[in-house]
Specification:
Elements lengths: L1 H27 L12 H29 L12 H32 L15 H30 L8 E8 L2 E6 L33 E3 L2 E4 L4 E7 L4 E5 L4 E5 L5 E5 L5 H5 L2 H23 L12 E5 L11 E7 L1 H10 L3 H9 L10 H17 L1
Parallel strand pairs: 1-5, 4-10
Antiparallel strand pairs: 1-2, 2-3, 5-8, 6-7, 6-9, 9-10
Bound molecules: copper (II) ion.
Length: 384
């Protein structure tokens, strides 16, 4: 409501200013000053130099941005295919930069050179086939090359060999959390449907499906280094997007269908934490947090916990009010640690059974003790 009022006030202010300028224009009618609407040579000179000013602004801002925010871009990729994504991205950047540098200089220089001058007439220039061929063929060839390389990289990355030895993991998106399901020993996920969602079975896994018997549901995912992980994404409610920036992986999660992405992690979490750039980044974040903590403590708050790096699965589609907080930790282990983690997990069937088994009533007799009583009673009757 407040923002609506602010917008109305701003619109009214703009209308008022516009009316004021009209009144000012009316007061100038009949004055001696030059009220001609035709630009003079002086006006055109000013516009010409302003073109150069704008050109300088574009380049200075670009160079500043490169140095100020350049280090914030994603660094070393943590997946086998990540290098290809980065390569494609870097080639695109370089091409854009070259084209932008040349075209902007030409655009602004010509705007200056051919600015309006008294008695100067525009040249009528019908066409020039040679020029047009040059500026059509060069972009066409460059773009075709870029698109072909992009398609090659895309097919390479997205191809999932069904016969390859992978680990199948389901990523389940819902407002506003992620849940993962590891396919277990058979490496096949049991069927699932929203109708089966009940109690601890939050993913709606069909418990009668033989493939579902060893499925493991977790809220913090472990995966091994050096093995391809085949992710199958589902969504319960709206469009989400599974985004794992360090693995250069992103895929939409669409209600009613399963989408897929596969990649091989090449650094364990602890190895990635030890990369020099990451050590520096974490130190920097912690310095900022320590500074902030001083302010917080002064205001009666608590000290911020130090930050440690972890791979995260984020949501990259604005899916609702708490979208920003939709994340799940992914821990890349060594194959041995992964096996140990897998052993510790309780599968979904066991969890469901434990949650549906009736709780023992206090004072009630167990079936064994009842049986024992029966035996005593029977022997008593026999003695009679
Ligand atoms: Cu989301």
């Amino acid at each position: 409501m407040t923002s609506l009022l602010v917008i109305i006030v701003l619109v009214l202010l703009a209308v008022a200013l516009w009316q004021l300028t009209k009144i000012f224009d009316l007061t100038q009618v009949g004055c001696d000053s030059d009220s001609s609407q035709v630009a003079s040579d002086d006006d055109n000179d000013v516009q010409g130099y302003l073109m150069f000013g704008f050109l300088a602004f574009i380049y200075i801002f670009s160079i500043y941005g490169l140095f100020a925010w350049g280090p914030l871009v994603l660094h070393t990729p943590a997946s086998a295919h990540g290098g290809q994504v980065d390569n494609l991205m870097n080639i695109t950047w370089v091409l854009i930069f070259i084209v932008q540098a040349i075209t902007q200089v030409l655009l602004h220089y010509f705007a200056f050179k051919y600015r309006g001058k008294k008695d100067q007439k525009a040249l009528y220039f019908a066409d020039n086939n040679k020029l047009e061929a040059i500026w059509s063929v060069i972009p066409a060839v460059v773009l075709a090359g870029l698109i072909l390389y992009g398609l090659y990289a895309w097919t390479n990355i997205m191809f999932i060999d069904e016969d390859e030895d992978t680990i199948v993991v389901e990523l389940y998106a819902q407002q506003f959390k992620w849940t993962a399901r590891v396919a277990g020993e058979d490496n096949v996920l049991g069927k699932a449907n929203v109708r089966y969602i009940e109690g601890v079975n939050v993913l709606g896994v069909d418990m009668s499906d033989p493939y579902a018997q060893d499925d493991i549901v977790v809220s913090e995912l472990h995966i091994p280094k050096g093995k391809k992980i085949h992710f199958k994404m589902r969504s319960q409610d709206v469009l989400h997007s599974a985004y794992m920036p360090y693995f250069r992986a992103q895929m939409n999660c669409v209600p009613g269908m399963v989408t897929e992405f596969a990649f091989e992690p090449i650094y364990t979490t602890s190895e990635y934490r030890e990369l020099p750039y990451m050590i520096e980044k974490v130190a920097n974040i912690n310095a900022i947090r320590a500074k902030k903590s001083i302010d917080l403590v002064a205001k009666g708050g608590t000290v911020l916990d130090p930050y440690t790096f972890d791979y995260l699965l984020l949501c990259n589609k604005i899916c609702g009010a708490s979208h920003y907080n939709m994340q799940m930790k992914i821990i890349v282990d060594t194959p041995e640690d992964y096996k140990a983690w897998l052993k510790e997990q309780t599968n979904l069937v066991t969890q469901v059974k434990a949650s549906t088994a009736p709780a023992p009533v206090e004072g009630a007799m167990s079936t064994d003790s009842l049986k024992a009583k029966d035996t005593v009673a029977v022997s008593k009757i026999a003695m009679k």
